[in-house]
Amino acid sequence: MGFLMCKEDNGLGCLMKNSASVELDSYFPVRHQRQEDVPKTRFKPRVGKTLSPRRWNAAFSQDGQLDIAGVLRRIQRGGIHPSIKGAVWEFLLGCYDPNSTFEERNEIRQRRREQYAAWKTECKEMAPVIGSGKFITAAIITDDGQPIIETSVNGNLPDDFGGKPSDNGSADKRVIQWKRSLHQIGLDVVRTDRILVFYETEKNQAKLWDILAVYSWFDGDIGYVQGMNDICSPMVILLDDEADAFWCFERAMRRLRENFRCSTTSVGVQSQLSTLAQIIKTIDPKLHQHLEELDGGEYLFAFRMLMVLFRREFSFVDSLYLWEVMWAMEYNPNMYLLYEEPNSSCQNGSQKINNKLLKLYGKFERKNVQTGWTEQKTALAVFVVASVLETKNKRLLKEAKGLDDVVQILGELTGNMDVKKAVKGALKIHKKYLSKVNFIITRVLSAALGGCICCGYLSAAHHHSCRPRNHSCIRLQRECFTIGYILQQA
């Protein structure tokens, strides 16, 4: 298959595969012996809906500014053509400002490549296996910082590949922790997307390992956690330059890193599971009650879906399609500025939102802005899980007699889910959820002011105006006071 180089002066900086290919899966070929293990791909590029290479190139002005509103509309309707996914993802994830020029993006790209090279050099000094084209799959260091001589390495390496101990026989705690994670990264790398021809070569596996190892050092607060390999892998495949793939992954982790924050008592994704429980409880209390009776009220059966963004539930191609549609719908035009300048006016909410600016938001985020829910930060993925549960509502209520049944019913979705239907259902649930929650808040605020939910008067003396609903009016007011009291005590 042929490759076309994107023009570097266009600021795209990626390899584009020949878009004349007929078979979509040929962009991500599967090993012949694993063909039967692959879920069927449902996504097909559609003329007039999918963001095509021609439409993508036409979206740039002469100096390189991107018509992000037009791009988002296309992606939300039909995804992105495989030949340009890498370049488009960089914008969706906030690597670049759509208002930047070709020249400005080239400067940013070069600066980031240099930064990545510096971090990689720093890591290589601690563990020379970094950047060698090899990777490790067994521990190289003990808990007290002493190197382990015998270890499993893909290929021959010098004796000091694991680094040298410090003069006092111990190493810095952070260095020890990082080195102890390297073999786990290696074990996960050899299991990552192994059905794909791309990872038949040790070179590509080592590239994924290097990025994850450097990221683990760069983000010492989170480090490496299993599942990051599944998030990073598509970036390695889509972006030819290792540094570009690293920064794309880093931006994706800005959204997801809290899911990977682990402690001895909890995992970060539990926060999203709690939100999922609240959503189902609000929109489908009967299903939520049934799951609670099955001891599934914590929704741990959805753990994997949220942790690796449905990588197991869809084919490789369909999972990428789902990601880009979700990112397009969650798109915030201030994303780049928020990442680069956290203390900007966009962060503190002082920026005014008008109709023109609203068009630059993705469909999901636009709804949040319009309803004032920008601080909640609930990912669209949580609503996608809710959508999946709702599609199996009847079966779960009728057939699930235990958590094993819930897991089995949801497991049958693998390879049988339609991305467009799942996302469409998620948007409907999002709208319904916001409507219900806002109604409750309205009642609470009305009650707090001594008002009436029916007639809107703040004085009880005016309740006659809402007759014949006055009795209902008073009942609702009492409920409002009760809800308000509960919220105050929370």
What's the SSE blueprint?
Elements: E1 3-5, E2 15-17, H1 53-58, H2 68-78, H3 85-92, H4 102-126, H5 173-189, H6 202-218, H7 228-238, H8 242-256, H9 270-283, H10 285-293, H11 303-307, H12 316-329, H13 335-340, H14 345-348, H15 355-358, H16 363-371, H17 380-391, H18 393-399, H19 403-411, H20 419-448, H21 470-489
Helix pairs in contact: 2-12, 4-6, 4-8, 5-6, 6-7, 6-8, 7-8, 9-10, 9-17, 17-20, 20-21
Description:
It holds the Pfam family RabGAP-TBC. GO terms for molecular function: GTPase activator activity. InterPro entries: Rab-GAP-TBC_dom (IPR000195), Rab-GAP_TBC_sf (IPR035969). By secondary structure, the protein is mainly α. It has 3 domains: 260 residues, putative rabgap domain of human tbc1 domain family member 14 like domains (Helicase, Ruva Protein, domain 3); 165 residues, Cyclin A, domain 1, CATH 1.10.472; 41 residues. The protein is built from 21 helices and 2 strands. The chain has a two-stranded antiparallel sheet with strand order 1-2. The longest helix is centred in the C-terminal third of the chain and has 30 residues. The relative contact order is 0.08. The N terminus and C terminus are likely disordered.
